[in-house]
Every structure is written in C-alpha cells, then in structure tokens.
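Quick one: Phosphatidylinositol phosphate synthase from Klenkia brasiliensis, structure tokens please.
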Amino acid sequence: MLGVNLRPAVARVWAPVVRTLLRAGVTADTVTLLGTVGAVASAVFLIGNGWLWWGAVAVTLFVLLDMLDGALARARGGGSVFGAVLDSTGDRAADAAIFAALAWWFSGAGDNRMVVWLALTCLVLGVLTSYVKARAEGMGLTCDVGLVERTERLILVLVGTGFTGIGIPYALQVCLWVLLVGSTVTVGQRFVEVHRQSQGRTLP
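--- reply ---
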C-alpha cells in the first residue's frame, strides 16, 4: 500500500526525465527491460558475491525504473496489455533474483543457514502474495488488500541487505523476520478478501 502513496511524489521527481525520454523516442517497454535486467544482474553479481551494500544500492536504482516505465507509458497515452504483462513478469524476476542471491551467498561464504531459510521462505510468500491477487483478478474479483506489497517487500529486504553490508549486525535477519510475518498476514488478508467477494458465486 505504501507504493500507492509514494507514486504521486515519485511521478513529480521523474517528470523531467519522462519528458526527455519522450523526445528521444524511448518506450516504456525498453525501460522495463533495462530495469529488470539491471536489477537481476546487480542481485546475481553483487549480492550473490557478498557485495551487499553496493548490491542493495544498485538494485534500488534499477527498481526505481519500475516507476519510471509506468509514468512514461501514461505520458504516451496509456500502457499496452503486453507492457503490463512484461512489467509484472519483470517484477517477479527481479524479486526472485534478490532472494535467490541472498540464499546463494549465505549458503556459502556468508555461512548463515537462518538467513538462507528466511530468504527462501520470503521468496515463496512473495510469490503467493502476487499469485493470489493475480488469480483473483483473473476470476473477476479485486484483491487490493494487504499489509505488505512489493514496495514494502523491497524496502525491507534491500535495507536489511545494505545495512548488513556496512556491518550492522542482525539487520538482514530482523528485516526478513518482519517481512516473513507481514507477508504471511498479507496472504491471509487476501484469502479472506477473496472468500468474502466470492460468496454466492460459482464457476461457469
């Protein structure tokens, strides 16, 4: 839900960049691909090799492009169906790369099995959070509820990763535990909402 509140402020920041990209003929899909590839590469090659601070910074910069592509699409008169699917797929890929990179590093040189378990569990819960909403919307329902959505998930994991990278003890563990609890609550909230809306409705 934080992402919805931040969007107007971010749009104002991106406005000059959007105008420049429009004049240059850059499309929203191009920005989406750049952001996805950059975030995945930063997670794999920086976080996955223990450069936690710089990995968190790099991923954050590329993730911010996720808000730029939407602004660019709206400035061009509205996004396409393909662009929406590409954007959602890119989001899932970037999220998975971050948690997988954490699991990779901490299962090896990072040597912390608790972080591995937390990262993998948060990855699964993130997938479930997105899937419940997507499946509900595919059935004609709405599912815009939840304590932790993608913005909150990224803030928690990237802050924890970055702080751990500069030597703050247990920062990542604390952030991942908060994320685990919040994501569990969110999945529950979404199932409750789907159950409420689906009362009396049957499949065709």
